[in-house]
Amino acid sequence: MSKKITTLLFDLDGTLINTNELIISSFLHTLNTYFPDQYKREDVLQFMGPPLKESFLKVNPGAVDEMVKTYRTFNLEKHDSLVTEFEGVFETVQTLSQNGYKMAIVSTKVRDTVIKGLKLTNLDQFFDVIVSLDEVEKAKPDPEPIEKALAALGSTPEESIMVGDNHHDILAGKNAGIYSAGVAWSAKGREYLDQYEPDFMLETMPDLLDVVGMEKR
Q1: DSSP alpha helices (H): ranges in the chain?
Q2: Cα separation, 32 vs 66, whole angstroms
């Protein structure tokens, strides 16, 4: 590693907080509202990661906005009952914060939903910078969200890393010229992420402390 990492950019869903069940349930509810009994759990994994409009455009171009509304209504209604924490996330993020690392959330979700998830898991106290779908013209894997986060934090690509559970996160990191780390607990599986050759693969979130050169306690 040519330069010490000082800055960490995190995806939210499936990376810091376990929204997998919420997202799968929301997609199943929406898709089966429009296409009854045509979609099962394994069918919706392909839609996890990209912005909602991009996903629904593939299946029903004439009703994209309607489907987004249906999805978000269900998603918000079920949010607090289905979202859980990933083991070791809070302690790791807290340790990084206490040791002066700069951190931001870079997500393809809208800002209100990002904040809702952070507050539910008490992670909101660690993130002053959030780059959501609302703040960008182009979402991940385009480098724009990462570049906005780095500008807000006053960081350079050489000292930064993007941590995520989807190929969009890994590719966004590469496109922005920063390090990337995949998480082995991705709903799509470790092998899926390995195809995109992240610089690091985290088995658990505390592994991130080793990546930035801090000893795990």
Answers
A1: 20-34, 41-44, 52-59, 64-82, 89-98, 111-120, 144-153, 167-176, 190-194, 207-211
A2: 14
Paired strand residues for 17 = 13, 85
With beta carbons less than 8 A apart as the criterion, state whether 153 and 129 touch. yes
How confident is the model over 94-152, as pLDDT tens digits?
A: 999 999 999 999 999 999 999 999 999 999 999 999 999 999 999 999 999 999 999 99
Closest by Cα among 217, 213, 95, 83 to 161: 213
Residues marked as catalytic? 11
Closest CA to 197 of 181, 215, 176, 217: 181
Choose among 154, 151, 145: nearest CA to 173.
Answer: 145
Sort residue 140 into left (φ over 0), alpha (ψ -120 to 50) or beta.
beta
Confidence (pTM) = 0.89
> Tokens 């393809």 identify what position?
108
Q: Which of 103, 147, 156, 154 is nearest to 129 (CA)?
A: 103
Structure tokens at 4: 């010490």
